[in-house]
Predict the structure.
Amino acid sequence: MRIGVVGYGTGGRHFHVPFILAARGVELAGVVARAPATVAAVRSDLPGVPVFASLTDMLAAGVDAVTITTPPQTRRALVLEAIAAGVHVIADKPFAPSAAAARDLALAARDRGVTLGVYHNRRLDSDIQTLKSVLDAGRLGKVWRLHSRMDFDDPATLEAGPTGGLLRDLGTHLVDQAIYLLGPVRSVDAQLDMVDLPEGATDAGFTLTLRHDSGAHSHISASKLNRLHMRELRAYGSDGSHVAQSTDVQAQAIFAGKPPAEDRDGWGFEPESHWATLHTASGATRVPSAQGAYFRYYEAFADAVRTGGTPPVTAAEGIAALAVLDAARTSAETGQVVGVDREISDV
């Protein structure tokens, strides 16, 4: 599958291109970049890869699929342009500004007969894959609750203004992870930490309580301005608990200049010092790290395109996560528990 990447900021440069290059059955067909410094970065990083001034130019040259990873406010028009051209699309997160806006994109893709996937790549984090294996094996018994915390000391990357904020940024990933692990969400209780920035009031942190259909509940929090750097997962069930403090190993390797194509088999494992611990009646047991491999998202997407199957994260799943975020925003504004619109993801 020949795939083009639209945008070469932090997302395109660090969280898409390296994993396309490592994926089997996928070829990087080009990058859309316009600013001179960005064009220079593409040419330095990817010699020989075509650089296009616009998505229109890339589509005219011919691609099988595109990843749209430009700033959130520009994505809708680009996703619709690719769909209209009959090209398969991966939309970066946040998929859209709201569940309703995302549904419009999903319906457009369905009507045109193209595959539309959402890049919720953090389902493929090592700590999430490790916990998923523990839950799937029934090692916790009946699952009662999940605690998921992701604090970054990274104020420079906070997307400011009314269309930004941490809830739509990290919140998209953490909510999707909770749904992936524990199933659909029926209600949300949310608190947002608001700051006044030149671009406008912005949520710089959040705490969410999600109630799942299964009876389990998730407690999710994140921050970027509190001078903390910590990733922690805790899951509690009738037979014990699972506790992990991870290093975000894939991101750290990318920023250290170690791309996954150099060592696919050894990529994305948490060091033993950060393995999870499973606490049961038998005692405490270390749980070896599962592999985290974002490149498998691209392999699965390419396979879905080839076979007409289901992409690794469907548009409906992207809408479901946004419906939770929409409810969270309303909950924070009203101070009430808010039900999640579940019908909106039926596409």
